[in-house]
Amino acid sequence: MKDIDKKSLTLKTINKSNVWDIQENDVFRMLEVAEKDSDIRENIKHYIDIIKSAFEVEEIKIDRPEIIKKYEARGFQIGTMPVDESQKVKIGIKKRPILRVTDLTYENIRHISATKLLEVIDRNFGGGWDSLSQSIQDIIQSGFDISTTTLPKDRLHKVGGMYEKKVADGFEVLEISKGAWIEAIFAKLKPETEKPRLKFGTDDSRKYDSDEDDDEDLPEIDEKYDNDDDDDAFDEDKLTEESYRTTIEENPEDLDLTAEDVADDDEY
């Protein structure tokens, strides 16, 4: 996960992504500042909407000790939120848990660890990577490098194999038993990169700019429809252990090929 200085975030700088980096006490710290800032108070609903993308927020309308205890038993932290210059309301705040694959979003995917991600995938009925919907796979792959392989139990941990190489490269791994076979899902957080965009100068030359805003300047191209002419091309370099799921290594001497079989093939 990305390391940030939580104290550098304020209500004016949080968004639906970095709000996942803070905790309940950070929210109340930000709301304290709002009491003295009229601009924040006037736009408090906007900031609370952002906070709600990562936190459950409930107004406590009956302020009695027994009610407060019930909220605390549910994991809420209790504090106040300014409504105007002279009025505050009591609220309970609790960070939204990420327990199921349906809890994953493009905003929070980069704010969990690879270990946490694999725990969430493992809770998905043990179905493995292919059991996830395409939309969930897209969310996960926006933040993590993912590789999978399915091999017999006695071959998965083969010395010098894919498993050993991936772990050495910093990948976390989840093993899912499928009878005599094991599916291994490897996950590693992608390094953060700035999204380039195209800028057009007066000489019509295209230049890349790393500003984060105004992504409309860079049209997104679906790689599935790019280079249609190359769809039928065969690339032997792509035939690695990662690119197929169930490969059984055969010894050519065990195939029992006769000289006549070879001769028949040569006729073609």
Automatic annotation (TrEMBL):
Ranges of Acidic residues composition bias in the record: 210-235, 250-268
Compositionally biased region (Basic and acidic residues): 198-209, 236-248
Region (Disordered): 198-268
Source superkingdom: Bacteria
Name listed for the protein in its UniProt record: Uncharacterized protein
Organism: Xylanibacter rarus
Lineage: Bacteria, Pseudomonadati, Bacteroidota, Bacteroidia, Bacteroidales
